[in-house]
Design brief:
Elements: H1 14-35, H2 55-58, H3 66-86, H4 91-109, H5 119-136, H6 139-152, H7 169-185
Helix pairs in contact: 1-3, 3-5, 4-5, 4-7, 5-6, 5-7
């Protein structure tokens, strides 16, 4: 019985639980701020200041208002299941590094103000899913890349300054670059084409294979003797040939 090739796409509970847990955490933090009237914006990223480094870890879980939180929640509920389903083995690495390095990029590039929100992570996810699908050349992932363009292609404009006030375009740009870098660095061996040798093919005949002919019936390596080389005279004539050199005189 032939062994079937493992399906690289498998639905698991984590496809649903991961985004739900992550988004629930965002809403829990926002509820805490409202319930106890405790503004946590000072845990955001403040660029190029040592005290602003803590925001690299915490800024993705903080949001300024419910509209900001709702928009990011919808995006995460779409992108995180896609990431987990299509890139199961790379999902947690992309999620962790997407948070850390998009935050670090914001800390390096950002304006002197507190930067909060999961937008940097969202741009990292969009960028990774798009570019990785193109790089793998796997037809399903390429189709997924074009779907991402349809859903989030317009968000590319928010990586540039002065497009809309009140947004961290630096965080968007940092997240986009992080996603591209992760798509280049992370390997996806689950999508590589399997290699089949001639002896694995069902119609393989060892008696006709040149290499197998080097073995005898007992399996010993016993290559047949090489045929003797026959030197043939391609030109043979009894006619006398006289060569005369005609040299030019100076």
């Amino acid at each position: 019985m032939e062994k079937q090739q493992d399906n690289p796409f498998q639905f698991t509970k984590a496809v649903i639980l991961l985004p739900l847990f992550f988004v629930f955490t965002l809403w829990l933090v926002f509820w805490y701020e409202l319930q106890f009237k405790h503004n946590l914006s000072h845990f955001g990223i403040y660029p190029r200041e040592v005290y602003g480094l803590k925001g690299i870890l915490f800024s993705s879980f903080l949001h300024g208002d419910i509209e900001h939180l709702a928009n990011n929640s919808v995006a995460l509920l779409v992108l995180l299941p896609i990431l987990r389903y299509f890139y199961k083995e790379q999902s947690f690495v992309v999620l962790l590094f997407g948070i850390l390095f998009s935050g670090l990029g914001t800390w390096l590039l950002g304006r002197p103000s507190y930067h909060i929100g999961a937008s940097g992570l969202i741009y990292a996810l969009v960028s990774f899913i798009f570019f990785k699908g193109i790089f793998t050349k796997y037809y399903r992932l390429v189709a997924l890349s074009f779907t991402i363009v349809i859903l989030y292609g317009g968000s590319v404009w928010y990586m540039f300054p002065n497009v809309k006030e009140g947004i961290s375009w630096e965080g968007h740009l940092a997240g986009f670059l992080v996603g591209l870098a992760l798509a280049l660095v992370l390997k996806t061996p689950q999508f590589s084409k399997p290699i089949f040798y001639d002896w694995e093919k069902p119609d393989f005949n060892p008696e006709l294979d040149p290499f197998m002919k080097n073995f005898d019936e007992k399996g010993n390596f016993n290559p047949p003797p090489k045929p003797e080389e026959v030197i043939r005279e391609y030109f043979n004539s009894s006619m006398k040939v006289v060569y005369e050199f005609l040299g030019g005189k100076k």
